[in-house]
Amino acid sequence: AHSRTPLMAGNWKMNLDHHEATHLVQKLAWTLKDAKHSYDEVEVVVVPPFTDLRSVQTLVDGDKLDLRYGAQDVSAHESGAYTGEVSAAMLAKLGVSYVVVGHSERRENHAEDDALVGAKAKAALGRQMTPIICVGEGLDVRKAGEQVPYTLAQVDGVYADLSAEEAARTVVAYEPVWAIGTGEVATPEDAQEVCAAIRSRLAELYDQEVADAVRVLYGGSVKSSNVASIMTKDDVDGALVGGASLKAEEFAAIVRYQE
Ligand code: PEP
């Protein structure tokens, strides 16, 4: 984990009103500024709803905040008759650095499959944004002990059409679905098992250089009280955080997990 810059990304999902969203960004930046020395090496990303991206851009640019921001989804299409979709070009114009693709909520609620998730990742990469590719098993698969093959099959599917150059610019988030929003966090050993398997698979699909470049995050009920133990694991390079990213102090404490 240690040659890669740790990444802490806060996925707000469909939460907060506009006022709360801008307030959270400002408060987070202030809280982190006070503690600058201890999170120097951590990359901090907020992932608001589309409708808040413009305001977040204004805050980050205007106040030169040491934060990056991402989108929760992107269209796989370049442009055209795709009502309701938002293109990678549109996001790139708003200064977006990261795009979450294939979140389990989109896989479940919008029937997104690995091929579509891969196409979305490719669209983001084409505009120099970093896709955060979400993978992970549900409870039935975990109970059957099939979490590694299940998750690696998702990796195979999503990366099928990505070159080594593209793959090296991705981030993977291992998010066991049973741990998302449930308060039930994977043990550090469980997280390490699958994150290490993902990295090995990237080495097989591409080469060791690609595997070493890709940051693999853990996601699923991460809080300030459990993040440090998960971050001790070699193949866990950060966290994708849902609920706990909605409060500035709590998310700042996650960023400052080394203290
Ligand atoms: C997520 O939505 O990516 C997530 C991990 O949510 P939570 O932290 O709330 O479990």
From TrEMBL:
Documented EC number(s): 5.3.1.1
Described purpose of this protein according to its UniProt entry: Involved in the gluconeogenesis. Catalyzes stereospecifically the conversion of dihydroxyacetone phosphate (DHAP) to D-glyceraldehyde-3-phosphate (G3P).
Binding site for substrate: N11, W12, K13, G181, S221, G242, G243
SUPFAM superfamilies: Triosephosphate isomerase (TIM) (SSF51351)
PANTHER family (UniProt xref): TRIOSEPHOSPHATE ISOMERASE
Keyword hit for Isomerase: yes
Localization per record: Cytoplasm
Xref: CDD domains: TIM (cd00311)
Subunit details: Homodimer.
Gene3D superfamilies per UniProt: Aldolase class I
Keywords in alphabetical order: Cytoplasm, Gluconeogenesis, Glycolysis, Isomerase
Chief subcellular location: cytoplasm
Enzyme class of the recorded protein, top EC level: isomerase
Annotated pathway: Carbohydrate biosynthesis; gluconeogenesis; Carbohydrate degradation; glycolysis; D-glyceraldehyde 3-phosphate from glycerone phosphate: step 1/1
Organism domain of life: Bacteria
Keyword S-adenosyl-L-methionine found: no
Catalytic reaction equation(s): D-glyceraldehyde 3-phosphate = dihydroxyacetone phosphate
Name of the protein this chain belongs to: Triosephosphate isomerase
GO molecular function: triose-phosphate isomerase activity
Family the entry assigns: Belongs to the triosephosphate isomerase family.
Annotated source species: Georgenia halotolerans
Active-site residues, Swiss-Prot/TrEMBL: H103 (electrophile), E175 (proton acceptor)
HAMAP family: TIM_B
Entries under InterPro entries matching the protein: Aldolase_TIM (IPR013785), TIM_sf (IPR035990), TrioseP_Isoase_bac/euk (IPR022896), Triosephosphate_isomerase (IPR000652), Triosephosphate_isomerase_AS (IPR020861)
